[in-house]
Design goal:
By secondary structure, this protein is mainly alpha-helical. It has 2 domains: 153 residues, no CATH class; 88 residues, no CATH class. It is 41% helix and 10% strand. The strands form 3 sheets. It has a 3-stranded parallel sheet, with no helix packed on it. Strands 1-2 form a two-stranded antiparallel sheet. Helix 9 packs parallel to helix 11 and helix 10 crosses helix 11. The radius of gyration is 20 Å and the shape is globular.
Length: 260
Amino acid sequence: MNNLQESHEGEVDPILTTPWQYAQIINNQLTCYSQQNSQTDAPLTGLAFPTTLNIQNNTEGSPSEFARSALEALREPLETGTITIVRAARRAEFPARFQLIAAMNPCPCGYLGSSLKSCRCTPDQVSRYQSKLSGPLLDRIDLHIEVPAVSAQQLLNSPPGESTESIRSRVVAARERAMQRQGHANQNLQGSAIDKHAELDATALKFIYNAAAKLGWSARSTHRALKVARTIADLASSETVQVVHVAEAVQYRRGLHGVA
C-alpha cells in the first residue's frame, strides 16, 4: 500500500489494498526491519481493508487471520500517522497516514444476531472471540457499523440506492466547508480546536455529556465522536453541530454486537 496515484484530473487517489499479509509486514517492521525491498519502505498511505479482522490464537489460524500483536501495532499509526522503529542506536520514522476499513464476524460461527440462521456459539465463545480486539484499538476506529445479512429477496428486489456521483458531490462539498472553516479536514482537529470548530449547541452538548458518561467513553472516544458529529453537520450544510448530528455520531460507536 505504497504511494498515491494521480487521477487523470490531477487529483490524488489513494490506493486500496486488501492486506492479507499486512500483519506480517507490520511484525517485520517491529522485529527485524532489514528487508530493503519491503512494501513498507515507501510511505504507507491510502486505504487498508483487512476483510477478515479475526485474531489468530496460539495453535491455529487461517492466512486471512491477523495476529493480535500485529493489530495492536496499528494503534500508533492510527493515532499519529507515523510508524516509529527503534533498533539499537538507530531510530527511524515513516509516514503512515492511511484510512483503515476493516470487517469481522461477530462470533466464531458468524451468525450472532442473524435473523436468517441461528448462532451456534456459546456465550463464553462469543465473549472470548470479541475480547481479542482491545478497547484501545477500537477507540481509534471512528465508525463501528453492524451490517446484517439480507435475504435473497431483499438482495434481488431492493430499489437502486443513491448514486456514487451524488454521494461524492456531497462529500466534496462537506470537505470544502471544513477546509474553509479551519484549513484542514475534521479528522485533523486536535485538542481545543475540536471544541472551537465543533460549535455544539446547548442541547447537543448536554446529549454528548450524557452519552459519554453512560457508555463509559474515554477522552479519545469522546473527541472522535465530536469530529464525526462535526462531519455529519457539514454533510447537512449546518453551521452548528445539533443534537441530531451528535445522536447519529453516537450510534456509530455502539461497539460489537454482544450476547443477548
